[in-house]
Amino acid sequence: MKRPAGSLAIDWFYARPGCESCEKTRVELERRSLEPREERSTKRPIDDSEARALLGSVDEVWIARGAKIDRRLAARVTVGDLRGPTGGIRAPLLRSGRHLLVGFHEATLREWLDTI
């Protein structure tokens, strides 16, 4: 089902300062004239309790790891699935309604934004 034109809203955007993928995500959001309702840009990483709360607020999660995309129901995603190679929660993170995108892959970001 197609959403009505102009109905897309980004509820939450997590980016880390100096994160190249986060900046690429920001550029795509600006290109689409999408301004997140809430943005968290901090050096302090998201902790496990915040990650669990985030997973509890969504129904579907897309996890981008390079060109590999893992699409799952949030109930089947663990905090460990959100971790990157250094052990921290991956950035960027985008939430729109009950949908979450974790990590960055340019084509996947565009598909996610077109799908939600």
Reconstruct the topology from this structure.
Layout: E1 12-15, H1 20-31, E2 38-41, H2 48-56, E3 60-65, E4 68-73, E5 93-96, E6 99-102, H3 106-115
Parallel strand pairs: 1-2, 3-6
Antiparallel strand pairs: 1-5, 3-4, 5-6
Structure description:
- This protein has 116 residues and is α/β, with parallel strands linked by helices.
- It has a single domain (12-115), classed as Glutaredoxin (3-Layer(aba) Sandwich), CATH 3.40.30.
- The chain is 27% helix and 24% strand.
- It has three helices and six strands.
- A six-stranded mixed β-sheet has the order 2-1-5-6-3-4, with helices on one face.
- Strand 1 (12-15), helix 1 and strand 2 form a beta-alpha-beta unit.
- The radius of gyration is 13 Å and the shape is globular.
How would you briefly describe this protein structure?
By secondary structure, the protein is an alpha/beta fold.
From the spread of the alpha carbons, the general shape counts as globular
Describe the biggest sheet?
6 strands, mixed
H-E string: EHEHEEEEH
CATH topology-level name: Glutaredoxin
Instruction: Report the mean per-residue pLDDT as an integer.
Output: 89
Assigned CATH architecture: 3-Layer(aba) Sandwich
Roughly how much helix do the residues carry, as a percent range?
25-40%
Summary keywords:
116 residues; Glutaredoxin; 27% helix; disordered N terminus; 24% strand; 3 helices
